[in-house]
Amino acid sequence: MPGDVCVLRPVEEGPGGESGRSWTTSRCFGRRHPVRSLAGAQGSGTVWPRRHYMAEPDRRSTLLASYENAAVIVSAIHPERLGDPTPCPRYDVAGLVDHLVEAGKRAAALGRGQAPPPGDESPHVELSDAPAQLRHAAKDAAEAWGDGAALSSRFTMPWGEQYTGATLVDMYLAELAAHAWDLARATGQVDRLDSSLAPAALDGARAMIKPQYRNMVEPGAPFGAEVPPPPGADDWERLAAFMGRDPRATPGR
């Protein structure tokens, strides 16, 4: 059926250690253990079921909170700033808003077992619609990642690499958090960032980004070389530096 993408398929044993059992994507991401509480789109209202067999770090709640953090920043961007440069050299503000919304949707789709589309193209999103789209994607992600068994399953991505569900959560937590910082830095909103998110996002980035990923496609893509954080750097600046940004440089210079 259209939209049923089965590239991402768990390749480990199922919950509880049933050896030799094959788990389809729908079974792994089923809602046999539903989220017990979901307050709007914010991750802080979600209570995730925990399992004794889960060895992977669980940063799902922080991933959900990163959507709201991004929505808060995007909601305060003035239209005249859309052409401004950002610390992410591939994007101006408008392009990065599009990319951020698309990243949020992809994170939710991965939780449902759907492979991301090829390439890095992001459909255009009207600035006024972007916060609502991020919050809607957060609700989708909360449902999609509601089964803790997904964290320890392994998935083969379209380009051949395998990742655990926990690694995919870390990947998109780091992306949503770093790009929210990019937009906040570009539009003078750093003080609006949720300070509680940065340490977990940095932990997730450190767990996920391997040295060979830096400058792999081209300089700065998908990740630039780590930058030494400046003296007195706060948690958001340390995250930005790890992700390859100079946290105190003026965007575009």
Write out the CATH superfamily name of the domain at 15-28 and 59-203: dinb family like domain
How far do the termini sit from each other? 48 Å
Which regions are unreliable across 5 or more consecutive residues at pLDDT < 50? 1-44, 47-54
- CATH architecture group name of the domain at 15-28 and 59-203: Up-down Bundle
Strand content: under 5%
Structure in words:
The chain is an all-alpha fold and 253 residues long. It has a domain at 15-28 and 59-203: Four Helix Bundle (Hemerythrin (Met), subunit A) (Up-down Bundle), CATH 1.20.120.450. The protein contains eight helices and two strands. The chain has a two-stranded antiparallel ribbon with strand order 1-2. Strand 1 and strand 2 (162-164) form a beta hairpin. Helix 3 runs parallel beside helix 4 and helix 7 (197-208) packs parallel to helix 8. It is globular, with a radius of gyration of 18 Å. Mean pLDDT is 79; it is low at 1-44 and 47-54.
Describe the protein's topology.
Layout: H1 25-28, H2 60-75, H3 93-111, H4 130-144, H5 149-152, E1 154-156, E2 162-164, H6 165-186, H7 197-208, H8 235-242
Antiparallel strand pairs: 1-2
Helix pairs in contact: 2-4, 2-6, 3-4, 3-6, 6-7, 7-8
Please sum up the structure shown:
The protein has a domain at 15-28 and 59-203: dinb family like domain (Four Helix Bundle (Hemerythrin (Met), subunit A), Up-down Bundle), CATH 1.20.120.450. The chain is 40% helix and 2% strand. It has helices spanning 25-28, 60-75, 93-111, 130-144, 149-152, 165-186, 197-208, 235-242, and strands at 154-156, 162-164.
